[in-house]
Amino acid sequence: MKEQYLQRGNKLWEGSRMFLPEHKQALIDWQKEQQKVTKPILDEQELDVLNRTLHTALVQQASLRITYYEEGHLLEIVGYVDKFFESRKELRIVDVSEQIHHLQIDNIIQFAWTSLDEYGEKGVGSRD
InterPro entries, alphabetically (predicted)? Predict the structure, then answer.
């Protein structure tokens, strides 16, 4: 008897196959909310490294992989720093596909040196 109970397949859950669009969207929203992370807090030493790397990247127009925080997610963008707006504390980044992005300096978590050849025409701004 117990073996038949275990072999009945998915019949127990057949009634819950129907989801209303509102339920599906609520479930998707809940899953996205669960994936959010808190913004990392950088110490003085990490901020100093970011500052020196940013200065060098601006002077040399060197390519960087930039990790930044946006709305609960850590995102990456690959490109070079085109301009720093000191009054707004904002960077203008030109990515590998020549699109312009504006990032608040307070949201930047990490800079890493990279070569644009590695990325070719791939998109940037990927979610982790």
Answer: YolD
Is 126 in contact with 75 (CB distance < 8 Å)? yes
Assign 57 to helix, strand or coil: helix
pLDDT in tens, 3-46: 555 555 666 555 566 677 888 888 888 888 888 888 889 899 99
Looking at 1-128, list the stretches that DSSP marks H as alpha helix, in order from N- to C-terminal side. 2-6, 21-34, 44-60
What's the pTM value of the predicted model, to 2 decimals?
A: 0.66
Look at residue 65 and tell me whether its pLDDT is greater than 90.
yes
The answer to whether the beta carbons of residues 64 and 57 sit under 8 Å apart is yes
> Do residues 56 and 104 make contact, with C-beta atoms less than 8 angstroms apart?
no
What domains can you pick out in the chain, each with its CATH number?
Answer: 2-34 (no CATH), 44-127 (2.30.30.520)
- Are 74 and 68 in contact, with CB atoms under 8 Å apart? yes
CA separation for the pair 119, 127 (Å, rounded):
16
Q: What are phi and psi of 68, to 5 degrees?
A: -140, 160
